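Fill in residues.
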């Protein structure tokens, strides 16, 4: 896996606000990396710094082995080989689809390149239409085609789906993955929506307060979050308190192995889909609520010691209110309470 984009120790400040705070990110070549974090954490600033629209205060940015930004140098955007796609599409309203897509394309094969790119995004035959004659999803495809047509090394997408309705958004996510992989271009997509990041990214980088706090494949980051904050940001997480004793922590719903020393306080994170209740005669608690969604269901369990926990189960499992259950957990993550690393 070669690195296409590398930001190292990058700081960006705006009169007193630190938007990027010693930011580090390595983006692999030919894959789609989703950068996700809450509003205001610096996602757009990171994208603008990669594109060259934002100068950096400290650190370095390297694009395909070329140093493009330092404290004192800034290669202009048009010399970085980067295409951009924005939330608001930003098409030129008075020129046709073909002219929009061909805008940054030079050379004898311009017409052919525009036609091929439109075919790639599923808009063959739309050459002569104008942006106002297209649906939101089609406009976003044109914006993507315009970014891809000049043959950039890197495509940067800033919340590209947020102006689309839910069905269009899902369709475009799948389309985007197909297109990015078929072209083999490196892509970075910024979103505040964790479900979108998990669904669309080959890799994801989770940001908080100007830094990347964890990166990896969606499965790694979801199943092995480095802190309770990342765990909660990416999905539902129950955090139970416990104390290490003889290489394990008894959470009340299961015993979790740990390397923490005896007496160390810990937080144990459990996702609801890791909780497995079994209906029995006596058990450790009972089912007090059930919300049925069809494909799955949420079951609320009250343990006899007063603890409430949720389990997410396949919809096909038949459970009823008031039934007594035993509970096991399939997985859990232990955090040492005094360990604040990555706990932003
Ligand atoms: P959102 O998801 O809301 O778009 P974001 O994660 O993309 O947020 P940025 O737009 O990068 O966040 O902003 C990061 C921080 O920098 C914020 O506190 C913001 O107010 C500040 N900021 C961004 N641009 C400027 C600017 N041009 N002048 C001053 N402050 C700015």
């Amino acid at each position: 896996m070669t690195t296409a984009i590398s930001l190292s120790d990058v700081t960006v400040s705006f009169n007193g606000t630190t938007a990027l705070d010693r930011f580090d990110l390595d983006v692999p070549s030919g894959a789609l990396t989703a950068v996700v974090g809450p509003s205001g954490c610096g996602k757009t600033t990171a994208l603008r710094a990669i594109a060259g629209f934002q100068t950096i205060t400290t650190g370095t940015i390297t694009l395909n082995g070329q140093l493009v930004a330092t404290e004192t140098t800034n290669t202009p955007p048009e010399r970085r080989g980067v295409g951009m796609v924005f939330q608001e599409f930003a098409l030129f309203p008075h020129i046709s689809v073909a002219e929009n897509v061909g805008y940054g394309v030079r050379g004898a094969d311009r017409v052919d390149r525009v036609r091929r790119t439109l075919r790639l995004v599923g808009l063959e035959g739309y050459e002569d239409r104008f942006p106002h004659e297209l649906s939101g999803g089609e406009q976003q495809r044109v914006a993507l085609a315009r970014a891809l047509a000049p043959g950039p090394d890197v495509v940067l997408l800033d919340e590209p789906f947020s102006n689309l309705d839910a069905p269009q958004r899902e369709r475009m996510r799948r389309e985007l993955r197909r297109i990015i992989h078929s072209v083999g271009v490196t892509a970075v997509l910024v979103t505040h929506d964790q479900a979108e990041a998990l669904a669309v990214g080959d890799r994801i980088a989770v940001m908080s307060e100007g830094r990347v706090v964890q990166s990896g494949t969606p499965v790694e980051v979801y199943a092995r979050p480095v802190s309770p904050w990342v765990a909660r940001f990416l999905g539902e997480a129950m955090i139970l308190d416990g104390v290490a004793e003889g290489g394990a922590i008894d959470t009340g719903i299961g015993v979790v192995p740990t390397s923490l020393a005896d007496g160390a306080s810990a937080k144990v994170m459990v996702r609801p889909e890791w909780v497995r209740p079994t209906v029995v005669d006596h058990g450790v608690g009972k089912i007090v609520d059930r919300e049925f969604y069809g494909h799955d269901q949420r079951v609320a369990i009250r343990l006899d010691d007063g603890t409430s926990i949720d389990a997410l189960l396949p919809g096909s499992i038949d459970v009823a209110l008031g039934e007594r259950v035993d509970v096991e957990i399939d997985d859990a993550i232990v955090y040492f309470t005094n360990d604040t690393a990555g706990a932003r």
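DSSP finds eight helices and 20 strands in the chain.
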